């Protein structure tokens, strides 16, 4: 019985002696994996933030292009003497710019000018066309 107890004790001591280094190595691998995961997570978060900023910039650019398109349509309608449609296109351009306000005072002023744009109905539309083109050039 004593021999069995000694054998069990010796086996336990020998098992612990071989298990501790493996356990410590496993803990080190886990710590290294967690550090790598944190680094990767940080890099991915940074990439997501950059993509989000890029998406916001692209949405702003699309809004500017849409407003520019609406002004071009207003000029076309003016040439065809469709003043109601031309006014509607100016208002849509103003709404598009207003929805995409980016803190640029020039664009806010342009949106206000487009929203209150007055067409001169005296038969000479060159001045009106020139003012609309100037607004379009502001967006270019």
Give a structural overview.
The protein is mainly alpha-helical. The chain has one domain (2-139). The protein has 4 helices and no strands. The protein has helices spanning 2-79, 83-99, 105-115, 126-139. Helix 1 packs antiparallel against helix 2 (83-99), helix 1 packs antiparallel against helix 4 (126-139) and helix 2 packs antiparallel against helix 3 (105-115). The longest helix has 78 residues, at 2-79. The N and C termini lie far apart (96 Å). 15% of the residues are buried.
Key attributes of the depicted protein:
single chain, 140 residues, mainly alpha, 4 helices
Question: How many beta-strand runs?
Answer: 0
Instruction: Indicate the structural class.
Output: mainly alpha
> Approximately how much helix is present in the residues?
over 70%
The shape, in one word, is rod-shaped
Instruction: Profile the largest sheet.
Output: none
* Separate helix tally: 4
Structural Rg: 35 Å
Q: How do the SSEs run, as a string of H and E?
A: HHHH
Mean pLDDT: 82
Extract low-pLDDT stretches. none
Question: What's the number of structural domains?
Answer: 1
Distance between the termini: 96 Å
**Strand-residue proportion:** under 5%
